[in-house]
Amino acid sequence: MHDAPFPQTASPLDLDMLRQAIALSAEARAAGRHPFAALVADAGGHVVSRAINNSMPPGGDPTQHAELRAVAEAARLLPPETLADCTLYTSAEPCCMCAGAIYWSNIRRVVYGLSEHTLLALTGAHPENPTLALPCREVFARGQRPVAVVGPLLEDEAARPHAGFWCDAPPAA
C-alpha cells in the first residue's frame, strides 16, 4: 500500500461535497436514471465536473457510470498534474471499472457514501446492477501511485435515493 498524500479522514468540506453528490443521485433517480452521482472538485471545493449515471437500459451505455463520466469530463478540462490535487466525491463506492478510470486520470483521492457491500444489500440480484465484490481500495492498492480513499460515509443519507428503486426488479436471468 502506498502512503497517501491526502488526509484519510473526512473534513467538513468533504462532507458538504459528498452531500452534493448524494443530492445529485436523488436528481438522477427523479430523472429516471439509476440513483448514482459523482463530482470532481479541487482542494478548495470548486466543482470541476459532475455527472449522473447513464447506464440504465434501454438508452443507456453500461460503461457510463457517474464516476467514469465525471472523471472523463474533468480529464478533458484539466491536465493530469492538476487532477492529482482533486478529489472525486461519489454517492457509492466506485466499481473496479470506475476505480481504473480514477487511477488513470491521476485523481489521487476518493470520498464515497455507500460501500459496495451496503449497495449490494440494497440492489440484491437486480439485473441492472450486478455488483462485483471488489472494493476500490483493492484496485488502487495494485497501482504504482497512491489514491487515498475515505469512506463509507453518510451511508444512511446515501441510501435514501435507492429506497424502493431496486424492489420492482424482474428476476435475474
TrEMBL record:
Please provide, alphabetically and separated by semicolons, the GO molecular function terms listed in this UniProt record. hydrolase activity; zinc ion binding
Q: Where is the CMP/dCMP-type deaminase domain?
A: 12-136
Task: Write the record's keywords in alphabetical order, separated by commas.
Answer: Metal-binding, Zinc
Keyword Iron-sulfur, does the record have it? no
PROSITE patterns registered for this protein in UniProt: CYT_DCMP_DEAMINASES_1, CYT_DCMP_DEAMINASES_2
User: What protein is this chain from?
Assistant: Nucleoside deaminase
Q: Which species does the entry assign this protein to?
A: Gluconacetobacter takamatsuzukensis
From the broadest rank down, the organism's phylogenetic lineage runs:
Bacteria, Pseudomonadati, Pseudomonadota, Alphaproteobacteria, Acetobacterales
